[in-house]
Amino acid sequence: MLKPFEVHVQARSLACFQPALTGAEWAALQANAEQARDQLAGHTFWNVNSTARGGGVAELLPRMLAYARGAGVDTRWMVVQGTPAFFRITKRLHHALHGSRGDGSPLGPSERACYDEVLRDNAEELLVLVRPGDVVLLHDPQTAGLAPTLAAAGARVIWRCHIGCDTPDEEVARAWAFLAPGLSAARLAVFSRAAYVPPLLADRSVVIPPSIDIFAVKNQPMAPEVASAILGHTGLVALAPEAPEPVFTRTDGVPARVSRGADIVRLGSAPAPGAPLVVQVSRWDPLKDPVGVLRGFALLLRESPDLRADLVLAGPSVLSVADDPEAAATLENVISVWREQPRFLRQRVHLASLPMVDPEENAAIVNALQRHAAVVVQKSLREGFGLTVTEAMWKARPVVASAVGGLQDQVRHEVDGLLVRDPGDLPAFAACVRRLLEEPVLAARLGTQAHEHVRVHYTAVRHLSDLVALLEQLDSRAQRSP
Average pLDDT, stretch 73-97? Predict the structure, then answer.
């Protein structure tokens, strides 16, 4: 029998935000915390998703929950477990909600039976823990089917969808038809963009963009020489002579050292410590288009053979993300395309699977890689929001992104990054990357403005305020119900 497991989160005081806020902003944050405590007095705020590591939801939850606990709110995190068949079905739903066919497999009665059976097993354990009046926030397609059971037990159920499609098609409709029975029991639904809201949820939806935690290991300040040392010890760049120790500070304040290396496919040696890097950090997912990034970079080098830059395509170890069965096949496809390239290109492209045994070590490596990058790209074909771009912008890196999904909300073209209108337009993608590599003044200006844009719109302070408003709306709907 499949049972969900709890991920324990330590409380973190909101006081860390005070130095960065005005007096009015700090007072508003404290008022929001008090309001949340009052609204949830005697109840627990549960978050339920399908993986404890890898991907945006697993990045978002621990830090937001830590601040909620620090504000005195009893909030807990449960992770459902599933079979390979279940995760194949939910990956198919993931693609369909993006408007993509994925592997083209059916979403029929047998898939419905498998999906329901797995969630029925998980629900048995949740029903022991969740009490009437508790708030349960279910994340993404993997958990939507839990809503009727939990609502029937007296929980106030919200479903959050982190993905979507700007131009719904038959695939999107197919996904919503599959999910509709479960979602009928959710009081509210939360989306990252208004364009993602389907008609069946139009009367009970709220738009809340995601955020990053600026104090997380992945976003903490890091000196350039330390970033270079971390990448050197990981094998992503050559280790500089007399490099400092590859150290970072854990969430609990304890210093730590990066000790694990990345699994890297390359021809020849690592880039020199000072070599400009074009970097994409993403899960190994076809919708992130790592093959397109590789081919776009190949076009760039063919047109500008003297351009000094290497490409690093980085993602988590394919064995580490339980709910993504396509990762290994996607990476194999990228490697296959890499092998087809001429020798001079293979020497300039590095495919890195980052260690995930220690999530905070992994976060430190990603932090170092993004800070070291000359250009950070996210050439997604579809994208729910794209927190990797948010992270790079916070680090004042110049970014090139596809104008899809939440990427176009974050990146204002020519203001705090460059957007490629058609994600399949490789010449346009190559031209944007070349421009940032060849125009350092422009790159620096875009990076500075990107940092400020994230500070104002995409940090935990704004997100916590939105969650308090969500609880208000939840209570308001309950009072209107007959």
Answer: 96
Q: What is the pLDDT of residues 426-456, one digit of tens each?
A: 999 999 999 999 999 999 999 999 999 999 8
Length of the chain: 482
- 280 pLDDT more than 60: yes
Sign of CA dihedral 167, 107, 115, 478: positive
What's the CATH number of domain 224-457, 3.20.20.80, 3.30.499.10, 2.60.40.1120, 3.40.50.2000?
A: 3.40.50.2000
Q: What is the pTM of this model?
A: 0.88
What's the Cα-to-Cα distance from 32 to each of 37, 360, 373, 395, 455, rounded to whole Å?
A: 9, 29, 37, 28, 19
Helix boundaries (H) for 319-398: 327-340, 343-346, 359-372, 387-394
Q: Which of 288, 317, 304 is nearest to 437 (CA)?
A: 304
For helices 440-457 and 426-438, the axis angle rounded to 10 degrees is 100
Where in the chain are the domains? 5-211+459-480, 224-457
What is the fold of 5-211+459-480? Rossmann fold (3.40.50)
Distance in angstroms (rounded) separating the CA atoms of residues 296 and 334:
13
